[in-house]
Specification:
By secondary structure, this protein is of the alpha/beta class. The chain is built from eleven helices and ten strands.
């Protein structure tokens, strides 16, 4: 049926339904009553049912007419919204840049990675979404996203046509409130044995690498909290509830923003970062800017 609907006819029906008569709709639309009446008859014929019935001098909607009006209201509401969106986009003259970010990544380093995209000539309207990597990759493969930032490369086991672009890597820095630093810094990393720790959950690659490292060192901390969100780790660490680690590349920002101090650092565990795109060879100017700056300025590879 959808291909049989003439939306001009639907507009006439919508106006008559809201005005209550063809005469009033005629004045509103600046179209003769005869034209509106004829177009309504064509619409009813195509829909196979009467949309109005007469009650005195007025037209009253039939049951199918009331159903049609609900759809017409929604259609013309969406049309009005579309016009506003397009006018806004034209006035801004900005291109949307859709980025998906793995929820496990520290937001400070994500901000540093994405920032170069906002500095390219012409400007971009950045739209960032966060979530599990598998869902983001599915959106990327359907071109709902321009790029995904992750700390693990995709192996394309889901059959998606997306490609990894290595950004760089960073060692780990361990943080704590001053009281924890005073007791743990002198004998780091052995001092982490039985120390209270706040960690990412085991689903994340960096947690698995950390676990392998401490087992080799025969270090067994007291894990007091595990989190999917790195922001929560830092917030609990700020309150003195445990030691936590972040990439060394953002160590200064973590100390400044959360009032913690550095307990120790290691390069034996590397936190790696990837830009994943639907392009084998990057051509999107925003993705190019991100890859170049990350490799030369953030991670210095």
């Amino acid at each position: 049926m959808s291909e049989l609907i003439n939306y001009k006819h639907l507009r006439y029906f919508w106006a008559v339904a809201h005005e209550g008569s063809i005469a009033k709709a005629s004045k509103r639309l600046h179209i003769t009553p005869h034209t509106i009446s004829g177009q309504l008859s064509l619409l009813e014929a195509r829909m196979g049912c009467a949309l109005f019935e007469k009650q005195g001098r007025n037209l009253v909607l039939t049951e199918p007419g009331r159903t049609a009006l609900k759809y017409a209201d929604e259609i013309f509401k969406l049309g009005h919204e579309l016009g506003g969106v397009m006018r806004s986009a034209a006035s801004c003259n900005q291109t949307e840049f859709m980025v998906g970010v793995a929820s496990s990544l520290p937001k400070t380093i994500v901000c540093k990675i994405i920032e170069p995209a906002l500095l390219i000539p012409g400007g971009l309207n950045l739209i960032s979404t966060e979530g599990p990597v598998l869902g983001l990759l599915a959106d990327l493969s359907m071109h709902k996203l321009d790029m995904v930032i992750s700390d693990a490369p995709t192996n394309n086991t889901l059959g998606t046509s997306v490609f990894n672009h290595y950004l760089g890597e960073s060692g780990l820095t361990f943080f704590g409130v001053p009281e924890l630093k005073e007791s743990l810094a002198p004998n780091f990393p052995k001092s982490l044995h039985h120390a209270p720790m706040l960690l990412p959950t085991t689903q994340f690659g960096i947690r698995q690498l950390f676990d392998q490292w401490i087992h080799k060192q025969k270090i067994f901390p007291n894990v007091v909290g595990q989190f999917d969100d790195s922001a929560l780790i830092k917030s609990f660490g700020q309150r003195g509830l445990g030691v936590f680690f972040m990439p060394t590349a953002i160590a200064d920002e973590v100390c400044q923003n959360f009032g913690v101090q550095i307990i120790g650092q290691t390069d034996d565990v590397k936190h790696r970062f990837y830009a994943i795109s639907a392009e084998r060879k990057v051509s999107h100017p925003a993705v190019l800017a991100i890859c170049k700056t990350a490799r030369t300025c953030i991670f210095g590879d």
